[in-house]
Specification:
Radius of gyration: 66 Å
Shape: rod-shaped
Number of strands: 10
Helix content: 40-55%
Largest sheet: 10 strands, mixed
Number of domains: 2
Distance between the termini: 174 Å
Order of helices and strands: HEEEEHEEEEEEHHHHHH
Number of helices: 8
Strand content: 15-25%
Length: about 325
């Protein structure tokens, strides 16, 4: 009996139904699990699949008719099929587009998933387009066909501009990127500030060390100038002493010569002139050879071809070296 009823219902639906003034052919209507599925067909052959939690109410039929009158009769767009899902929160519609040409532009190739619509007292759209490697999200309230088609056309015309202006997720990403960039700049600025402070500390340390070196240099310069003054004073004193030494040496030589002359008397007591160069030779030989005796010195003089009396050598030994020959 149940099979007969279902057959009768399907047979009746197949003859057609009036949904708010729109004639549809009901292809099928059955319950699958907890939902009811109805398949309609309009007079142009478009198949409409409807899923609802219960049999379609008069209000739902009116909504279907409203959506059909709003979107299905455009000369710019040809719909291949439609899927309606009624839920407690409202109605969602997916339109599979066969063609959409607007302002001489084929737009349906940029809508691989078709057009997603929502109805809850008014129509809204929320679907994505894809062009030039960019996904664009078109979302908003539907007001008119022209405004809606312009929205699609503008998205296809300049995807990047559309994404920048309309896509909230893109704007959020841009804001996040700007924040990340600002955070990086803040971090870099903080690191730069730390480096600057470190360099400033190093500079101050070097400046202190420089000042210490300047003070040390000034102290060393004062010491140098003092040492230079002392050196000049010592040089003057040395020159003075050298002059005095030369004077004393001359006086000493005169004294020695005088003593030698006194000791160089002849038998009658007369002073005899001695050879000054010979005396110098005696002094040189004796100074170089302290162990030499009068005889050794005399032999060395003869080897040099210097003739000197023995008493002259003895006198030099006694007067200049305080060495008495008789003790040798």
């Amino acid at each position: 009996m149940k099979r007969i009823l279902i057959f009768l219902i399907i047979t009746i639906y197949a003859h057609g139904a009036d949904f708010g003034g729109v004639n549809f052919s009901i292809i099928s209507s059955e319950k699958e699990g907890s939902v009811y599925k109805t398949v309609l067909n309009d007079n142009s052959g478009i198949e409409i699949n409807i899923t609802s939690p219960a049999n379609l109410s008069v209000k739902q039929q009116g909504i279907i008719a409203n959506s059909y009158n709003t979107f299905f009769n455009w000369k710019e767009m040809k719909i291949a099929s439609a899927h309606y899902i009624f839920e407690d929160t409202g109605l969602s519609i997916v339109l599979s587009i066969e063609s959409l040409v607007y302002k001489n532009t084929n737009l349906n190739k940029y809508m691989p998933s078709g057009i997603q619509l929502y109805y809850n007292n008014f129509f809204e759209y929320d679907f994505r387009m894809f062009k030039d490697s960019l996904f664009m999200r078109l979302k908003g309230q539907y007001f008119s066909k022209t405004e809606f088609l312009d929205e699609i056309f503008n998205a296809a015309k300049d995807p990047l501009l559309y994404v920048q202006v309309h896509d909230p997720s893109y704007l959020i990403r841009q804001i996040d990127e700007i924040k990340a960039h600002n955070n990086k700049q803040d971090k870099d600025q903080f690191e730069l500030l730390e480096k600057t402070n470190s360099l400033l500390e190093q500079y101050l340390d070097l400046d202190n060390r420089h000042n210490d070196l300047l003070q040390s240099h000034e102290a060393l310069t004062e010491n140098y100038n003092k040492l230079l003054e002392d050196l000049l004073a010592l040089t003057e004193k040395n020159e003075l002493l050298t002059g005095e030494k030369e004077s004393l040496s001359a006086q000493q030589e005169k004294l020695i010569n005088g003593v030698l002359s006194l000791n160089n008397r002849n038998f009658f007591g007369s002073l005899e002139i001695y050879d000054a160069n010979a005396v110098k030779e005696i002094i040189t030989i004796k100074t170089s050879n302290p162990e030499f005796t009068v005889k050794d010195t005399e032999t060395a003089l003869k080897e040099k071809g210097v003739k000197v009396a023995t008493k002259t050598i003895e006198a030099v030994f006694i007067i200049y070296f305080a060495e008495f020959p008789q003790n040798k």
